[in-house]
Each structure stands twice: as C-alpha cells, then as structure tokens.
Amino acid sequence: MAKLSSTGFFVLLSMMVIGTIIYLRLWTVQGDLDLTDTRIDRIMFEQAQSEALDEAAEWRKKYDEEVENSSESMQKLLEVTQSVEKKNQRLENLETRLRELQKENHGLLRDVAKLKQQVEDQKLKCEKTGIKEV
C-alpha cells in the first residue's frame, strides 16, 4: 500500500469527520422531521376525528328530527283515519235512517192515497144520496 503523506492523511481524516458531522446533522434533522410528522399526523387525526364526530352529531340530529316528524305525521294520519271512520259510520247511520224514512214516507204516501180515495168515494156516496158537503 502506498504510504499516505501527513497532508493526505489529514485531508482524509478531515473528510471523515466532516462526513460524520454531516451524517449526524442529517440524522437529527430527520428525527426532528419524524417528530414533526408525528405531531402533524396526530393533529390531523384529531381534527379529522373531531370533524367526524361533528358530522355524526349532525346526522343524528337530522335523524332525530325525521323520527319526530314521522311520529307527528303518523299521529296526524291516525287522527284523520279515526275521523274518517267516524264520519263513515255516521254516514252509514244516516243512510240507514234515510232508507227507513223513505220506506215510512212511501207507506204514508200509500195511506194518503187510500185516504184520498176513501174521501172521493165518500163524496160520490154523498152526492148519490143527496148530502151536501160541509
């Protein structure tokens, strides 16, 4: 091997020291970057988690509002259905009563017609017998 002169040895030794210093400096910078990245990642994760919780709370609120609206609508529908059923029952009762009254009216009209006929018969009988109407 060739002998290195003291200047060459000094240059080689200086280069190794400078290389080691540069390596250590890069290593500490990388470590700082890793710590910074970890902090940034944690902050971003916490922010994303906070946003997700806010969004979940918003969706839960919307869901609760829709459930409440649905319950109110179902209650109103039930009330309307019951009201319609009562009105239908009343209508059926009125129709039944109307049919009864129509039958009664028809019977009364026949009775009136019979009575008119009897009155006419009595008038004719009276005319034949010579009795005047009062």
Task: Characterise the protein shown here.
There is one protein chain. This protein has 134 residues and is mainly α. It has a domain of 92 residues. Helix content is 93%, strand content 0%. It contains one helix and no strands. It is rod-shaped. It starts with 5 loop residues before the first helix and ends in a 5-residue tail after the last helix. Keywords: Coiled coil, Membrane, Transmembrane, Transmembrane helix.
In short:
This protein has 134 residues and is mostly helical.
List keywords for this structure.
single chain, 134 residues, mainly alpha, 0% strand, rod-shaped
Q: What's the topology here?
A:
Layout: H1 6-129
Instruction: Report the total helices.
Output: 1
Tell me the structural class: mainly alpha
Portion in beta strands:
under 5%
Mean pLDDT: 87
Computed CA radius of gyration, to the nearest angstrom? 56 Å
Total beta strands: 0
Q: Assign an overall shape.
A: rod-shaped
Low-confidence stretches: none
Q: Which oligomeric form is depicted?
A: single chain
Biggest beta sheet summary = none
- SSE ordering: H
C-alpha termini separation = 171 Å
Percent helix, as a range, is: over 70%
Transmembrane segments: 6-26
Keywords: Coiled coil, Membrane, Transmembrane, Transmembrane helix
Coiled coil: 60-125
